[in-house]
Structure formats: C-alpha cells, structure tokens
Amino acid sequence: MTNELEWKWERLRQAMADMRADGCLVASNRNLYWLTGRVVGGYFYLSLCGEPHVFLKRPAALDRIACTAIRKPEQLPEALAQAGLPMPRRLLLEDEALSYADCVRLQRVFATAETVGGSQALRRLRMIKTPWEIDQMRQSARRQVEVYRLIPSCYRAGMTDLELQIEIERLMRLHGSFGTFHADGANMEIFMGSVLAGPNAEVPSPFDFALGGAGMHACSPLGANGTRLTSGMAVMVDMSGNYTAYQSDMTRVFAVGRLPEEALRAHRVSCDMAAQMERTARPGVSCAQLYRDALERAGREGLGGCFMGTRLQARFVGHGIGLDVNELPVLTPRSQDVLQEGMTFAFEPKFVIPQVGAVGIENTYLVTGSGVEKLTLLDEAIVPLE
Predict the structure, then answer these.
(1) DSSP state at residue 260
(2) 357 and which of 213, 234, 237, 316 could share a cystine (Cβ 3.0–4.6 Å)?
(3) How much helix, strand and coil, in percent to the nearest 5, is found in the chain?
(4) Which residues of 231-307 form beta strands (DSSP E)?
(5) What predicted TM-score, i.e. pTM, was given to this entire model?
C-alpha cells in the first residue's frame, strides 16, 4: 500500500505543477481514501516539495503518513508551520466536493494564498486505476456475479419488485456488500441499486441514472415502486457491486413468464452493441464514438425511441467507475475524452419496452493496452424466474 500511495502522491504533484499550485488540501471522503488508504475526520495536505501530512479533527491511526491533531481549520496555518511546511502561494481546494461555506472558510484560513478549484484534477487522476485498484474491482465483480447467479432463488410467485429487491439486498450483505452506494453528485441518491419491473421502467426520474422508476415515495423517486410481478414482465436488476471500496457495475434481466418478441429482440441488440464495443474499444478511441456507435445501431434497428428510456432518454451509454459508481470518463456524444490504459468503465445499452419493462445488459470493463477486458463475467441471456 505504501508504494500505491506514493504513486498517487506523485501523480497529484505533477497535476499541481501543471496548475502552478504548490499546495493541495483534501477533505472529502473518497479523495481522502484515495490518498491515505482510509477515511479520516480532517484534512490531507500535499505540498509540491514536502512530505504529505494529515491534520486530524477526529482520532484515527495512520501508520504511513505524519499526522497532527487540530480542532478546527483555523489552526491549519500554525499546524503547517509546526510540521515544517510552508504556507502555499496557490492552493488547490475541492471546489465541487465541499460546501460553499467550507470553501469560503478555508479561503479565509489561507487568506494569503490564491485558491483554485482542484476537484476536476482529482477526478481525472482517479480515472486511471493502479494494479491494486484493479484487483479490488475484480474482487467486487466476482462477488457480484456470485450474487446474481442466486437471484432466481429469491423469487416467489406474487411478490412485488420491492420484495424481490429486499431479498437480493439480503444476499448482497451476506456476500460482503458494504451496503452504502457511493455516487458523485448531489442529485445521485440511491440505496444499493435498482430493480425495475414492468411499466415502472418507463417512469422518468430527476436523478441522473440511466433509467428511472417511480420509487416508493416522492422524497426518493427512483427504482422499485411496489409493482406486482406478473407474467410477461421484464425485471431489470442493476445492483451495486460494492464488495470492496472499488465498485463493479452490472445489469442483468430476468423474466416472469414469456416476454414478447419485441423485448427479446431489443435484448439481443443490446448484447450485440456490447460485443461491437468490445471489438472497437482500445486506447485512443473516442468515448463519444462509442456512444454514437450505440445510438446509430439503435436507430438502424428501429429502437431509437426506446433506447435508454422512453419519456426521458439518458444521453450517455456508459460511465467510469471506481470509488464512485459514476466517475470519468462518461460515454456521451460531447465527451472530449479518449480511452486510456488503466481506465475502468461500465457500458450499459438499455431499452425500455412499454408495458413490458427494461431489457439490456451492463458490464464493467478494464481498458488494456490492446483493447478492453470484461470484469463482470456472467451469462447475458434473459433468465427466467418461473
């Protein structure tokens, strides 16, 4: 782990130098974990030339990084001096991860420094995974596959989508799921994942996920809504693979009875889209091109009107994944990113068939030197529940 952290610190220093910053202060949970190996109550500070230091407001043991106890951020200048670290002249702050009040407070603490936004720089650094991070994602993917294989055993005739999801969640926890679902952004609230059945898959949500669902209450309008599972209904399961700090993402479809041919055909098209992406994707390929390829295929198949939704269609077909389920890069038509070795992303071409439900697949991929490697290794055919 020591070499892992040192590699990340060095990459952060390079980003700081590119932005002409001589200090970086981090306080958000995911970035704290990325830079220290655990979540702490306090701040991680990295100077361009000095050693990293953690200023703790709450007790925590950090073996590999020097620590100083503080009670409030106003003590940071004095604590920096005691640690032998100079006050920064240009400081990176997590402008998008911290509240406005916290940013203003820290700007006052570092009044002699110019403060600039560092959230995007940190996102882009986390986009490329280390071998250890990739191994963590492989572990999550393997356990996620184990749970998905058991989903048919959860089904009972006459149950609702919510009852099915509760049984799946129980299996997930028994197999080591953390439960907490990490997503970046204020408008990304979800609990362990989503189960969409029948007409509920058509209901748009204000949350920025691929598909919506009404949810159980107006305060959380997403996912299962108590739909009774009946014959001819598709059930899409998109639960988080959060079995380590690094998530995998996978969607599979289950069927109550026989689905109509339109749904079966759309599912086959989704599988073909994923196969085409696997043949196309490699370092240097545009993320926007992968989206356009999927959109064009949906149009040729006469499925453009139900691709990634019906009433509200998502304008992406994939997203980066790691500590958060929605990291960079994002496979959108306007993305400026190209695939790079070490990226991990989920690819999720989905269709919503009115009155039937959602069909399609999602898998997690690693970008290698010559192409992509699928991490979520599970049969992609629709699985009967009866």
Answers:
(1) P
(2) 234
(3) 35, 25, 45
(4) 233-241, 248-249, 252-256
(5) 0.96
